Amino acid sequence: MIKRNKNFEKLTAGYLFPEIAKRRREYSAKNPNAKIISLGIGNTTEPLTTHISKAMSDYVLSLGTVEGYSGYGDEQGNTALREKIAEVYYKGYATADEVFISDGAKCDIARIQTLFGNKVKIAVQDPAYPVYVDGSVVIGATGSANVQGNGYKSVFYLPCLPENNFFPDLSKIKKNSLIYFCSPNNPTGATSTKEELTKLVDFAKLNGCIIIFDAAYSAFIRDESLPKTIYEIPGSREVAIEVNSFSKPAGFTGVRLGWSIVPNELKFADGTSVNKDWNRVMTTLFNGASNIAQAGGLAALDDDGLREMKGLVDYYLENARIIANALKNDKFKKAGVEVYFTGNAPYLWVRFPGLKSWEVFDKILDQCHVVTTPGAGFGPAGKSFIRFSSFGHRENVEEAAKRLVEKLNLY
Ligand code: PL4
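Above: inputs. Below: predicted complex with PL4.
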């Protein structure tokens, strides 16, 4: 028989989000009358907007005609969409040939790991979106050691805590590492300044590192002084790949559409082009994003689409403010609960001193019937934190906020 891929043995128990869904199902089975509200997974809840959804439905109808039908497209994506992304998001920082359209940022993150093989050292912010570490583990980029608690021999965690303003100590990163960096950050919401990202880019340049910059939440940045793309930082084109997505601003979590940017200046140690190999990965291992989704993406980037996306993001940011206000209540303040909400991300990161995050998760579920995400699922530095997601219908968010204030008793 064929042997199991040993890398799977090194993964921590279950993938975070299915594990939360399982606990919710178990709780519901035991408490069938509980009206559970989710502030857990970062999953959009509001309907597709009219201009964007109409563009997709028109496209579907045209696919039903001889003139309008099209089959496989270019694996790298529709040229018009690549050009529009370069124009709208990058304004001269990246060109259309550096834009690769995909089925989402998560899928790109997983595929990117094939570019670097399993001998590369990995540095991740701690806490971080679990795919960076789990994806690295699956391809075997963990070094020879087996699981050491939450750590792996070649995966280096960079604690990001209130104590360091959620910006890691870069001196802990080994030379020639792949650095996963997410801003606005999931789960902390921290959004790096120009100065911070300049430090990161300069460090990467000096130490032969490549940054995988996850900008999936860039549309939530409301503070004009904060960079929306790593390419606003001089020198970044030589050291950074960026991934981004229509999932959150356009509500495309189910439609599936994202993109990556691989600048032409980015090179491997032997001087060969990373863009060239990425083009090979995308054309060989991927068959192009859905042409229907791409029609929606194009509509999302014209004036009406941009207005609609801003409206959606504003809605979720207002939800976040409602949750933040509830958690800043005197009852929590007196207990020493710390609420981190930047106004530039859809997540709140909340520290419950002295308590373990799964314990807090269970209590919030039991006392308030609200699902959250335990910080420990994002890495060791998340162990006393809970992530509250602002993706939800307004009435549910208001109800959840009320229950937190009225019912939650943790200490
Ligand atoms: C649950 C930093 C959410 N089943 O939709 P995509 O693939 O374009 O983007 C995924 C993604 C990429 N980068 C970051 C993200 O936070 C996400 C989505 N994260 C969350 O609650 O943390 C949804 C997670 C989904 C998953 O596993 O990704």
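The chain has two domains: 6-46+305-407, 53-303.
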